[in-house]
Amino acid sequence: MKVEQLSPRGFNEQEFIKTPYIDDITERALTYIKAGFPVNFSGPAGTGKTTLALYLASKIGRPVVLLHGSSEINSSNLIGGNYGYRRKYKLDNYIHSVQEVEESLYYQWVEGILGNACRNGMVLVYDEFTRSRPEVNNLLLSVLEEKILSLPGWQKEKHYLRVHPDFRAVFTSNPEEYAGVHRAQVALIDRMINLEMGQYDRHTEIAITSAKSGLSEDEAAFIVDLVRNFRKKCGLESNVSVRSSIRIAAIIHSAGEKACLKNNGEFFGKIITDVLFSEIRDAEPEKRQLAVKIIKEIIAQ
């Protein structure tokens, strides 16, 4: 399990690429969040869900805690639990000839991630929450609806915690067909506003690829168009994303090469082949065979 606590300004907004597409979805999500409704950015890998969730959280202006979904997460990680123990030793030697020894052991309560966020009004960014087991995520049902976090029954003080009015939650999730992803509970999804994220538009992909790689927008556009053409012909929307363009562009920039298939563009063609083959390694055999054919056609153009 991986948890990161960030300050309200822990996200570097200067490195965040803004385009009309990004501004539109961010504005809508921020409107829902301010109204008290959690949002879930859902979509295939490589569509920038986590980055967008962190950017959104930074706009709220509260401390942010980032939790990565995992099958290893349990209720104690979220709520809290007893970890270790404290030992108390008392020696009473008031009377010289009599010694009284008192020793006691008791556990220490350590508050969990969700408990801390609920108590202190933080923004919880729960990345890929469907990778955690559904029974664990059930703890969020009362938090999002009744604004109450149930605590273990053996707690001496209270059996529940009232959620701070400034607490907010931002979720991301991958499609159910992805390995390691659980089907999200209907009751939990009903408490969120789902924002479906597909592939970026061409303008956004070019802007991101150029900014992340250091290539000019013209060269970035050439790479993005190649990748988009490949993605469309193969029908591999969930495998090939803007990440593919960024990788190709970053390698080209690092090697000091040009994004060109003409005039000794053999090296560039090999980079395209290696990167795209890496992206489709988990695709069905028929899809991979088609992809090989399409890549050869693209390079031969």
Automatic annotation (TrEMBL):
One of its GO terms (biological process) is gas vesicle organization. One of its GO terms (molecular function) is ATP binding. Its main location: cytoplasm. It catalyses: ATP + H2O = ADP + phosphate + H(+). It is found in: Cytoplasm; Gas vesicle. Pfam families: AAA_5 (PF07728). Residues 35-234 form the AAA+ ATPase domain. Keywords: ATP-binding, Cytoplasm, Gas vesicle, Hydrolase, Nucleotide-binding. InterPro entries: AAA+_ATPase (IPR003593), ATPase_dyneun-rel_AAA (IPR011704), Gas-vesicle_GvpN (IPR013462), P-loop_NTPase (IPR027417). One of its GO terms (cellular component) is preribosome, large subunit precursor. Belongs to the CbbQ/NirQ/NorQ/GpvN family. This is Gas vesicle protein GvpN. It comes from Desulfoscipio geothermicus DSM 3669. The lineage of its organism: Bacteria, Bacillati, Bacillota, Clostridia, Eubacteriales.
